[in-house]
Amino acid sequence: MGRRFGWLWAAYAASAAGTGLAFDALPLIAILVLHAGPAQVAALAAVGRAAGAVLALPLGPWVEFHRKRPVMVAMDLVRCAALLSVPAAFLLGRLGFAQLLVVAVVATAAEHAFRAAAGAYLKALVAPADLLVANARFEATTWTTTALGPPLGGAAIGLFGPMTTVLANAAGFLLSAAGIRAIGGREPRPARTGATRMRAADLLDGWRHLLSDPVLRPLFLNTVLVNGLVLAAAPPLAVLMLGPLGFAPWQYGLALAGPCLGGLLGARLAGPLVARFGRHRVLRAAGTLRVLWPVGLAFVGPGTSGLLLVVAVELALITCIGVYNPVLATTRLERTPTGLVARTLAAWSVTGGLVTAALTALCGLLAEAVGPRQAIAAAGLALLATPLLLPRARQSA
Question: Which distant-in-sequence residues (6+ apart) come within 8 Å of 265 by Cβ?
Fold first, then answer.
């Protein structure tokens, strides 16, 4: 798809590699360095996502009417600087839970803006016929780096201390910014029709589009709820595995990273499956299959058998997600007008952040009250009802 897409893909890979190495870095630092409990770990995830999403609310319209590459570079540099503040404070003996919250908020807001800009830039860069291939390559890259990163990150934490992976994450964002700069070419400034200044109505345009489109509306509601429930169970699972069950950080990373190879397989299968069965059937099937497995995590025990159970559940879950995500991303871009892409992606991302934050906080409170195992089971059972939100009738996508 050309040299410019190659640089964009390389930048994405650099960022994803750093994020993979630093998988759950802030919660792990909270647990291992600050000795945080289930409620604090859940609060770190929930407050970071919620406050970051609220902070990102005006960024969607702002991104829409600015050149996308400079926005992406700026957001990478913001995330890099925020993460570097953590090891700096640690070395000075000043690291506290409040700083981790601030870093989580800033990084989340910058991530929302980056995603909005990146999606709009990809649609302008790649031919419509190549969108599914491009999204599948990004999805495959995500799962590859997530498979390789956490075990290496866990080993690095054991050898060099808990700040190692945060530094790797910051370096990944720095390399991503350099790659985006290297794309080259001249990007025209988006033309704005109507009012010359951002209006309050601009904040709602993305949601209006999502909720009025008969295909995107059910996909939007289903996806934000499923993602929220899956991520909400992650802090109780971390506390359970690293606490009462006695798993080492490298074992925790291995149990969650190895199955990510299923995401690589799913991403490779997405295109052929769509070609054979059609987009609607693939979204329905993969969207349903992906929610059947997480309830099994409530039965994890100590030792090798417990580790193998987590691997099996995560492998099934992530393989289905690997098929679903690129097909969803392509459908979303194709059904969104060019001048509305950034606002639509921002609305989707912000809503997902808020829903995930609320569900994570609720799951954390439940874990504190009745135990992490029961909280994981509750999230898994709730997931089983989410296929009811998927599109039912075949529609043009």
Answer: 319, 322
